[in-house]
Model the fold of this input.
Amino acid sequence: MKIVLAPDKFKGCLSAAAVCEAMAASIRAVDASIAIDACPMADGGEGTVDALVAATGGRTVTRRVTGPLPGTKVEAPIGLLGDGHTAVIEMAAASGLHLLRPEQYDPTRTTTYGTGELLVAAAELGVKRIILGIGGSATIDGGIGAAQAWGARFVLRTGQSYSAGDRRLTGGDLKQLLRFDWPGASKQPAGANVKLLGSATVTASVPHYEPLLNTRGIEFIVACDVGNPLFGPDGAAPIFGPQKGATSEQITELDSGLRSLAEKLLRTPLADAPGAGAAGGMGFGMMAFFGATLRPGAAIVMEATNLRERLRDADLCLTGEGKLDVQSLGGKTAVAVARICKELNVPCIALTGSLAPGHERAHDQGLTAAFSICPGPMTLEESLHSAAPLLSDATTRVLRTFTAPARPRG
Done:
């Protein structure tokens, strides 16, 4: 028997690699003869750098950049892939919500400037392609901080202008934005459509614009796992603002600011592109400023790890993530893995920290079954602290059930 392990991280407690280790230890304890193929996954958030570097035989370098709050500094990794000309960056490493204490959550005060500094650092390493995972951000600034770090100049209604090295722009500056300046900046209208690639098929198309910034000949690919537009009821501020600490009043202001940003950049059609609202509008910002292509993060990792081929002769696939819910259907790891398993007729079971209402819809996507690793009621703190042993116990139960011999009838 061969079992492929293809889980994402359990946020706040276990990396994807640690999840694989806990699953594998349980499998070996039940039956040491089972072949285990561990393939840690990610969907564009934390763990994406590690997954892609490991899959391609690359290496990691570290840079000190601005954190999610202006005036703070963090150490953030840049993954250099084995092909020698591709870098991979996690937005969360520089601009992530996990870098803040809960009392610091406020997307009117946070910035993507540090993410922009990572993009600059990768460019200085001579790469030709940059993959940016945009999950887990603390920001809603439409990418203006990142563009500022790259060299863009923004003029506010006060008459003050800010470029690289100046005060870091934040989400709160969106409502004050007057114009964007860049020598030779593109003001071209929409041209031919370019395709937005999904995991296997074209899922949408968006208007094509020349990037507003000089991209230095670098191709930008954004790993994104949500399909929200930039503004409106399903936009970045109303949907993701509350979890980043925004008040109802701030949500209204941020939503208006994002709409104004798209209008002032003459890129309003891009605001409706699937994923434009991801990471507080960073999806839009990367398309508008850098000419980036948005792709599902899980698809990028699955291609790099050659997951499809590794599953072809598998008898079972175990996947998992911290929470399985309706949002998981948008392209998060467990469901993305299940879709490939469905195509290959491989049973796929997910082990998760929690199962939210609506997770049953994942069964139609190819997930055979899903189980919470929690055996009974417990606090979040208890489950995070005991995640590894809980995961091991759940894996053991699933495997014993899956491998149990059928009893003869009669």
Summary: The chain has 13 helices and 16 strands. The first strand starts at residue 2 and ends at 5. Residues 158 and 176 are 8 Å apart (CA to CA).
